[in-house]
Automatic annotation (TrEMBL), chain A:
Residues 131-417 form the NADH:quinone oxidoreductase/Mrp antiporter transmembrane domain. The chain crosses the membrane at residues 12-30, 36-54, 85-106, 113-131, 137-155, 167-189, 209-231, 243-264, 276-296, 303-324, 330-352, 376-398, 410-431, 452-476. It is found in: Cell membrane; Membrane. GO terms for biological process: ATP synthesis coupled electron transport. The keyword Transmembrane applies. It comes from Ectothiorhodospira magna. This is Formate hydrogenlyase subunit 3/Multisubunit Na+/H+ antiporter, MnhD subunit.
UniProtKB/TrEMBL annotation, chain B:
Belongs to the CPA3 antiporters (TC 2.A.63) subunit C family. It comes from Ectothiorhodospira magna. It comes from the Bacteria. It is a multi-pass membrane protein. One of its GO terms (cellular component) is plasma membrane. Pfam families: Oxidored_q2. InterPro entries: CPA3_antiporter_subunitC, NUOK/Mnh_C1-like. The lineage of its organism: Bacteria, Pseudomonadati, Pseudomonadota, Gammaproteobacteria, Chromatiales. The chain crosses the membrane at residues 6-27, 34-55, 67-88. Keywords: Cell membrane, Membrane, Transmembrane, Transmembrane helix. This is Multicomponent Na+:H+ antiporter subunit C. It is found in: Cell membrane.
TrEMBL record, chain C:
Keywords: Cell membrane, Membrane, Transmembrane, Transmembrane helix. GO terms for cellular component: plasma membrane. It comes from Ectothiorhodospira magna. The chain crosses the membrane at residues 60-81, 101-119, 125-143, 155-176, 188-213. It is a multi-pass membrane protein. This is Domain related to MnhB subunit of Na+/H+ antiporter. PANTHER family: NA(+)/H(+) ANTIPORTER SUBUNIT B, NA(+)_H(+) ANTIPORTER SUBUNIT B. The lineage of its organism: Bacteria, Pseudomonadati, Pseudomonadota, Gammaproteobacteria, Chromatiales. Residues 98-207 form the Na+/H+ antiporter MnhB subunit-related protein domain. It comes from the Bacteria. Pfam families: MnhB.
Length: 484, 106, 219
């Protein structure tokens, strides 16, 4: 492609950190204009993310030594297929969240805090995805934590504050366990560079302990069953754009980091039983999240429990990682499809909630019939969560089942399919009120953008149904470690 | 500076124990201030192990862990400040500086 | 309740197991000199003489930059949580407190400035200096909160963000000039590092005082 040849020498990765950070700083220095900086930043970041993905697709992974100090002395930025796909997903969903927030929050005082913290969160996530240094990753992880905790607390009131506090404590426990792992790795190998570590890690006590601490610490953060208790209140009580950002994007951060570590640093380690244990927890999460989503009575709570279930799918990663080559790529595609669909569902739920003035599922029928665009968005994105054909979710589950079957892991394939049935049941519950007979009611007047954005995201989930091949091609350009 | 290896091992082991004490207190204690302190104790244990690692080599003290400790302290301080203010807000909203027992699920 | 009782009996056992495993792991660490040699080898191009400062402000400048960002974000997060509670007026306002502060605060300011300055060649640096300056500010706040004029809000925001802004500007300029993101032109490394450290120390001191106050300015 001519565009990739043209881009070959352009350094893009640092700009994906600089641009959102500058936006966050400007939004903080001139709070009255925060939303316009936010919008500008979102557009610029999406363009940069697209260019980066094209560049990586065209010429393979880009490793950049910061300040001209190559690792192990300095810090490297790593923009490979995995990183650039996550950055791109964040940018696409991030632009949608930003546009939606224009309508949802407008120029309110709470809106100004939202913009500032949201841009910080975005910069932090990009910095994390692009970092190639285990200690630097710790710092970016803390940035993500502080920004998302403040966003959760933004709703005010006792329940969101308690949810934010629980989330902060759980996250700090996870960060500290991760940091102890970093220290053990540095003590054993004298480097913090992901690639450098990957070339050296062998089976012995310190790296094994590091792998356990880092994995468990990040698992706590990613709310895998039974460590999920903090997630539904935190995600369910936040303002809609925040719920979308947390459920669609932030949950993926710790998943990404676990995947990155096991791909680049620990591929030589095999902890016996780990795949069974993690797969078991993943299956329990799929089951429990699905059952709870059928039992709770409020729209956003259903969506939040659906996230608990979908996090379960992400951690089918472990049984697939060693047994099925390329299995992890199916999981990453699942993460992307879930990110887009979940953002659409949470934003559509926010629109319905604002229109009706509440989100009690049983009483939403009239508003759902009155606001067909939003209900349609809820339906399509829900179909992607279930994994119905023609959606990104279908391709994702297809790939998951395919790689599980290729490795003769029948059990995990059954988990994927059974989880789909549960998801079908709770998505039907979400949509049920719309099909009751009765007149429609548009509820309170709302900015049109709050209906168009969820619909566009829902249509994007259909587009993702055709994006399997390019996404896997991009993921094939991922750095993996080992062979040390 | 050559460090006596036995001294060094005591440092490393104490750092590890401090970390575990922090984990234990974080889970067992219910008052939020104690939980926040517990996280800081975990951090101190980590920094102690890191400084022990820095002194372990033959060729003098390794400066990188010292830089990491400074960065780590600043990050821990920031998180502690946010946690303390959040604790005060929780107390103002609920009257208690502790979290409800793993709460109703909806 | 049974669940919590089970947790209460299990937790000591789990902590003991974790302690055992972790102690084994740290004692298993081989003696090695880490990055001491690469750092020593690059000191002639670092722009400063002290290895820790060279690591913080040059080799791993990106870490330090993000760490300043964490501090700034902490203030924003604290402010987003609401307005601060007023500090109760001090009942103790005797001559001892005033006399002590009158001497202590100038000493703290000089010490803080010295620590920043000396960081390039000896132990010290922006964080140490900023922490001492911040402590002076906190003492001032504790002793006479009512009489102190607070900086106007826009100036506070600018002061807080200054360290991150200057660091980011220098780092981006390095990227544009071809020295890599967060890189310096070799001849300019010392003045740039010193400038960043001075600005960062001021921002850090202000950050610490505002974090201590907890919450954004009232009224």
């Amino acid at each position: 492609m001519p565009s990739t040849a043209f881009m070959a020498d352009v350094i893009l990765a640092p700009w994906l950190v600089i641009v959102p950070l500058v936006g966050a700083l400007l939004a903080g220095l001139w709070p009255a204009t925060a939303r316009w900086w936010g919008l500008l930043t979102a557009l610029a970041t999406l363009v940069l993310a697209l260019l980066l993905a094209l560049q990586v697709h065209g010429q393979g992974p880009v490793v950049l030594a910061l300040g001209g100090w190559s690792p192990p002395l300095g810090i490297a930025l790593v923009a490979d297929g995995l990183a650039s796909l996550m950055v791109l997903m964040t940018a696409g969903v991030g632009l949608a969240i930003s546009l939606y927030a224009l309508g949802y929050l407008g120029g309110t005082a709470r809106g100004r805090w939202f913009w500032m913290l949201w841009l910080w969160l975005w910069a932090a996530m990009n910095a994390l995805y692009l970092s190639g240094d285990v200690f630097n990753l710790y710092v970016t992880l803390e940035l993500v934590v502080l920004a998302s905790v403040a966003l959760v607390a933004l709703a005010g009131g006792a329940a969101p504050l308690a949810a934010a506090m629980r989330y902060l404590l759980v996250s700090l426990l996870g960060s500290m366990a991760y940091l102890m792992g970093v220290v053990l790795l540095y003590g054993a190998y004298g480097t913090l560079d992901l690639q450098g570590l990957g070339a050296q890690v062998t089976l012995s006590a310190a790296p094994m302990m590091a792998a356990v601490l880092m994995t468990v610490g990040l698992l706590v953060k990613s709310a895998l069953f039974p460590l999920h208790v903090w997630l539904p209140p935190a995600h369910g009580s936040a303002p809609a754009p925040v719920s979308a950002a947390l459920s669609a994007l932030v949950v993926k951060v710790s998943f990404y980091l676990i995947l990155r570590l096991w791909l680049m640093v620990f591929p030589e380690l095999t902890l016996p039983g780990l795949d069974l244990l993690m797969g078991g927890l993943a299956a329990a999460a799929v089951l429990w999240g699905g059952v709870m989503a059928l039992r709770v009575s409020r729209l956003k709570q259903v969506v939040a429990y659906s996230t608990v279930a979908q996090v379960g799918y992400l951690f089918l990663l472990f049984p697939l990682l060693w047994a099925a080559p390329g299995g992890w790529q199916a999981v990453v595609f699942f993460a992307v499809a879930h990110g887009v669909a979940k953002a659409a569902v949470f934003l559509a739920a926010g629109t319905l909630q604002q229109a009706a003035g509440h989100d009690r599922l049983a009483e939403l029928g009239a508003v759902m019939r009155g606001r067909l665009k939003t209900s349609f968005a809820l339906g399509i994105a829900g179909a992607s969560l279930v994994g119905l054909p023609l959606t990104g979710g279908f391709i994702a589950k297809w790939l998951l089942v395919q790689s599980a079957l290729e490795a003769h892991l029948w059990g995990w394939a059954v988990v994927v399919l059974g989880g789909g049935l549960l998801a079908g049941a709770y998505v039907f519950r979400l949509l049920g009120p719309a099909f009751e007979p009765g007149p429609g009611d548009r509820g309170r007047p709302l900015p049109a953008i709050m209906e168009w954005v969820p619909l566009s995201l829902a249509l994007l989930t259909i587009a993702l149904g055709f994006a399997g091949t390019p996404a896997l091609a991009l993921l094939a350009r991922t750095l993996v470690g080992g062979g040390g | 500076m050559a460090t006596d290896p036995v001294n060094l091992q005591i440092y490393l082991a104490c750092g590890a124990l401090l970390f575990v004490m922090g984990v234990h207190a974080l889970v067992v204690r219910r008052h939020l201030l104690l939980k926040i302190l517990a996280i800081n104790i975990m951090g101190s244990g980590i920094f102690m192990v890191l400084l022990g690692v820095a002194a372990g080599g033959e060729g003098g003290v390794d400066p990188v862990p010292h830089a990491l400790v400074i960065t780590g302290i600043v990050v821990a301080l920031s998180a502690t400040a946010v946690a303390l203010v959040l604790m005060l807000r929780v107390k103002a909203a609920t009257g208690l500086a502790r979290l409800p027992r793993s709460g109703p699920e909806d | 309740m049974t669940r919590h009782r089970a947790a209460a009996t299990l937790m000591p056992l789990m902590s003991l197991a974790l302690a055992g495993l972790l102690v084994v792991a740290v004692l298993d660490l081989p003696p090695q000199s880490g990055l001491a040699e690469p750092v020593a080898g690059a000191m002639d191009r670092a722009g400063v003489d002290h290895p820790v400062t060279a690591v913080l402000l040059n080799f791993r400048a990106y870490d330090t930059f993000l760490e300043l960002a964490v501090l700034l974000l902490a203030v924003l997060a604290v402010w987003s949580l609401g307005r601060r509670d007023p500090i109760p007026a001090r009942p103790v306002q005797g001559p001892v407190l005033h006399g002590t502060l009158r001497h202590l605060i100038p000493v703290a300011v000089v010490t803080g400035g010295y620590l920043v300055w000396v960081g390039s060649s000896d132990s010290g640096g922006a964080f140490q200096g900023g922490a001492v300056l911040g402590a002076a500010g906190v003492m001032l706040m504790l002793s006479r909160p009512r009489e102190l004029p607070m900086l106007p809000a826009p100036l506070q925001r600018l002061g807080l963000a200054l360290g991150v802004c200057v660091f980011l500007a220098v780092g981006t300029a390095g990227l544009l000039a071809g020295h890599g993101f967060m890189g310096y032109p070799p001849d300019w490394a010392y003045p740039l590092i010193l400038g960043i450290e001075l600005v960062a120390a001021l921002s850090i001191a202000l950050t610490l005082v505002l974090l201590f106050l907890g919450g954004r300015h009232g009224h």
